[in-house]
């Protein structure tokens, strides 16, 4: 009887743990998938977080971890099961947990983690051989495989970068880009509101051919998301008086 009780308890605990990992993967374009994970926050409630899975020939590149270690394990399990290709690189767009929080799960698999020195410093993570580190000035770009990383300057965070997929004309904007339904800039704890609009203008100048733009949170859209984000930043910097 006791054995049955313990077995039932283990099953219930396993079910509860599985339910806590909320992950969705869906196709966005040929060889590109959107991965979305959720976390409950004290300020915003249940929040979705976006990243990308990109097939490059015989391997996979992931842009941003899922939101935490357990969702990142679930993400890698999905790739193993559905795509059956090795993940060789993880590109991180800034230092917050919704972008970097599962990096150790990727490192355990031997994945090269492409991120800036500034990102690791802000996250207080010691560099290891797993990291492919770089430094960029505002407006500078860096190629990694078929993808391109642009540092537009501070916005949502001091280190935020965007990633360009030229073959698909897709821009992964991370949290520097807001969704169409966003009425404000969201979490400003590490933001530079004074620089945000100028940083987005650099993104617009660099990628005028962007067809699809992925915000860090919320639904993908077109290049209008960049203009929307720039308008939100300008409004936040110069609020109208009543």
Summarize the structure.
The chain is of the alpha/beta class and 242 residues long. It is built from 7 helices and 12 strands.
Helix and strand layout, with pairings?
Blueprint: H1 2-20, E1 23-29, E2 32-41, E3 45-56, E4 59-63, H2 69-83, E5 87-91, H3 97-100, H4 103-108, E6 112-116, H5 117-123, E7 131-134, E8 141-144, E9 147-150, E10 162-165, E11 170-174, H6 193-206, E12 212-215, H7 224-237
Parallel strand pairs: 4-5, 5-6, 6-7, 11-12
Antiparallel strand pairs: 1-2, 2-3, 3-4, 8-9, 9-10, 10-11
- CATH C-level label: Alpha Beta
Strand fraction equals: 25-35%
The strand order across the widest sheet is 1-2-3-4-5-6-7
What is the end-to-end distance? 70 Å
For the record, the count of structural domains works out to: 1
**Mean of residue pLDDT?**
91
Briefly note the structural class of the backbone. alpha/beta
Number of helices: 7
Write down the CATH topology.
Answer: Metallo-beta-lactamase, Chain A
User: Stretches where pLDDT falls below 50 for ≥5 residues?
Assistant: 1-19
CATH superfamily: Ribonuclease Z/Hydroxyacylglutathione hydrolase-like
Number of strands: 12
Rg (C-alpha, Å): 19 Å
How would you describe the shape?
globular
What would CATH call the architecture?
4-Layer Sandwich
List SSEs in N-to-C order: HEEEEHEHHEHEEEEEHEH
Helix content: 25-40%
Biggest sheet, open or closed, and with what strands and sense? 7 strands, mixed
